[in-house]
Description:
With about 625 residues, the chain is mainly β. The protein is built from one helix and 45 strands. Among the domains are: about 1-145, no CATH class; about 425-525; about 530-620, no CATH class.
Amino acid sequence: MGSHCARATDTTRWAARSVRLGRGLVWRAVSEEGPDDEALLRTDAWCSSCCLFAAAGECPGRAVRLHICNALRCDGPGDGHNRARSRWFGGSRISCHPHDLRSGGKADQGRDGRAFELEERGDCACFLGQCIHRPDHHRHHLRCAGSKLTEKVSGKSGGTVAPVGLTQYSYDSVGRLECTAVRMNPARFNSLPASACTPGVAGSQGPDRITKTIYDAAGQVLQVRKAVGTSIEIADVTYSYTRNGKIEYVIDANGNRAKLEYDGHDRQTKWIFPSKARPSAFNPSTPATALATAGPINPADHEQYGYDANGNRTSLRKRDGKKIAYTYDALNRVTKKDLCSSGTASCSAIPSTHRRDVFYEYDLRGLQTKARFDSLTGAGITYTYDGFGRLTAETQTTDGISRTVSSRYDANGNRTRVTHPDGQYWTFDYDGLDRVTNVKQATTTLGIASYNNRGLPLQFAWTWSTASSNKSTYGYDSAGRLGSIALDLHGSTRDVSWSYTRNPASQIASETQSNDAYSWNGHVDTVRAYTTNGLNQYSAAGSARFCYDANGNLTADGTSVYLYDVENRLVERRAQGSANSNCAALSYTGALEVRLHYDPLGRLHQVSGAAWARSASSMTAMR
């Protein structure tokens, strides 16, 4: 092992064989040579980044670093012998020269021109170069194996840089992430506990948000605990595993247990749901006690999956016994979705218009060209593409009327024009960063978009006419988080603005609104008890009672009854009636309130019934 640090005037800046970091980890780099804009690297097989290390003492107080964000090409992970030539921006190269001023923490720019800042701590034998493309200041503190210890987000306001958020990380003895702590007290950001598992001194924003992960000897996650160190700490999820390392049992924070089963190829064949009865004495203090005291599964409540020899899922048996079958071509592309296949439950309760089979077709590039009901010549969707695989036309015939939406693109792949079935079209202009700047109807400008110097949306102005003129303006705090929204509508009566403050976890801590006309005043004081079951469904809320089907969909709420198709999409809502309250024998014969239809891709296509009517022509789909 060894390295050589050349002087700043040398063309060969750094050469080394290997640097051993302990625990058998070796990073390699050879022969960085040539002018300021070139480098030649070699990395070991396990290296996931392009990094250079120098042996301790050979570059006193310095570390050899090349920032991957400035690399135009880099090898690795490789086998330790692959070589690749990389070009670097000379201004971002850091040498071993003691007078090199390009030190850690220097604000710099990545290839996209956006600023970032790095703060890296460590000795010369263990220094990892990272690049964070953020418009704000983003700092990392790294440990010797390259594991991140802290991540600090700072904002610059009035020339002063101040931290607004800090996340601390700690690891167990074998290097696995053990705790993640979102520290909530900015006054203590510079005096953190030694471990992220330890709560810090709480401030006005409450206790730190600590998540802890517990592993078994094989490195499998046994339990994830949240709100660690507080009175509301929970075991968010607990797992057990098969002998092949597949998840077998999943236990939620309420102690409800689900089970996953697999075939001989470790493909999941069944998902068994929890019993509706919640456990009476769940103890989640450890993974072992959680597994021992969680509730039972309900073997009768399950989904089941079938596969072909290529591993394609050929069948889905729903929890209610209905079955969906899938057919594939020789290229493993689905060509048919057979709804209400020969399952153990009848689909007769679902109107035939809501259980039509879907057929698919593809071009030689594998792009889907058809998705149609009943057959490849049935009603549905046809797609047309250009030579670059971009969608140029979508023709919809789901309701028997042909409607086409077409698109055009610029050389960068941005959509520049959308033409609707009636011949009306919109056009879009873009700036040099491919951001929309103008929206037009034909040649008439409808809206103008502008951005701030961080690339974030600043204002959308819709100015088609004076009577419809309105603007939406967005402001951001020093860290680039949304800080305000202002709506300037035609006139001033409906103008409104909202401003926000945020806590160290970036959650909204307060909201100020300028116009009370936007305030909802329908709140009422009430005390209401809620009852849940082992499937985490509300069975009651005060005097209201709820019903669910076998797939877990809400079917009655005391006012309306709801009907779903085989794929759990709402297709009807009808009046319930006071006598129709037996969850086991609900009637779907009440007055129709709304009916929903979907196209072959599952997109909402038509809404009908009473005042909800929406024609298919008013719901043109576009992707």
